[in-house]
Each structure stands twice: as C-alpha cells, then as structure tokens.
Amino acid sequence: MRKGWFRMVGTVVGAAAAVVLTACFVQDRLGFLVALALWGAASCLVATQLRNFAGYAAALAGITAAVIASDELGAIGGAKSPEDLSAHSCWPDRSNRKFGRPGATSSDASLRSIQ
User: Fold this and answer.
1) pLDDT along the chain (115 residues), means of 10
2) Cα 105 to the chain's mean position, in Å?
3) Rounded distance, CA 108 to CA 115, Å?
4) Per-domain residue ranges for the chain?
5) Residues whose CB falls within 8 Å of the CB of residue 93, separated by 6 or more in sequence, listed in order
6) In terms of Cα–Cα distance, which of 38, 60, 54, 50 is closest to 68?
C-alpha cells in the first residue's frame, strides 16, 4: 500500500513537471530538452539521497516527465497520468513472487539459466 502511494506521488509530480516545462518552453525545443534533462538529473540526484520508496518516487517523477514530455505539446499528459494512477492504486506489487520464492529477482533467474 505504501509503495502505491509513493508511485502516485511520483507520477503526479512528474506529470506536473512535464506540463510546467512544456508551458515554459513552447517554441524553444533546445531549451525544453535542456530543462527536461536537468529535471531528470535532479530527479536522479534526489532519488539517490532518499531511501526506500521515497527514492523510488523521485526516480519515477523523472521518468514520468520524460514519458509525458515525449509528446512535445504534452497532449498525452492528460490521458497518461490517470492511467498510471489507477494502475498504481489497483494492482498489487507481486515482483517478489514472480520467480517462486520471496526476494528472487530476474537477475537470479538469469544467472541460473547461464550456469
């Protein structure tokens, strides 16, 4: 439940950042890309400073801004964010159960297949 909350926060912050960047740099593609790159860098910096799900939310804010800003006018921002919010709040996190034992990751399965 807590991870879902941080996912929603990261999605909302990233969507808001994409809309603000789009509004600030309407006719300036280079400025827009530089500002988006700085937003991504700042999100990465904050994600490394925070712990656990808060760091995940910061990283998700950078990723969400890049996804929404991929359409330069932000037209998908209105449609993409509600989809993300509903998906984050409705679907349980089953990443640890995917490989049959708690704590298993895809890299564990990959290493077993190589050996």
Assistant:
1) 88 93 86 93 94 91 90 53 59 53 53 53
2) 20
3) 11
4) 2-89
5) 3, 4
6) 60
